[in-house]
Amino acid sequence: MFILTNASFTVGVISAGIGLLVFAANGGAFEFIAYGFRRFFSLFQRDPTRVRFRTYADYHAYRNEQPDHPFLFLIIVGALFIGLSMIFLAVYYNNIPAK
User: Fold this and answer.
1) How much is the pTM?
2) What's the N-to-C CA distance of the chain in angstroms?
């Protein structure tokens, strides 16, 4: 039971964590990093003056037009696995022989 508890808790935390990261990315938490990398790598182009987004405001407007990525299923599945691990933990603690 303890191995099942650890396995389901690990899967749940990873799934919910990825869902929360996608939620944060949809909100624009990492836009400045992506824009910075785009600008940095545009310096190595053949013509560095020809860039797609001249300012961060242009990039931000472009990102707001893009559809958001779904994330709710990851958080729900992660919560279900964490709940399942709590059930396994309760069963494990109830079946420990008394000393």
Assistant:
1) 0.77
2) 19
Cβ atoms of 53 and 41 within 8 Å: the answer is no
Cα 12 from Cα 43, distance rounded (Å): 41
In single-letter form, the type of residue at position 26 comes to N
DSSP 48: T
Per DSSP, which regions of 1-99 are E strands?
A: none
pLDDT in tens, 34-77: 999 988 988 888 887 788 888 899 999 999 899 999 999 999 99
Contact of 82 with 19, CB cutoff 8 Å: no
- Residues 87 and 21: their CA atoms lie apart, in Å, by 26
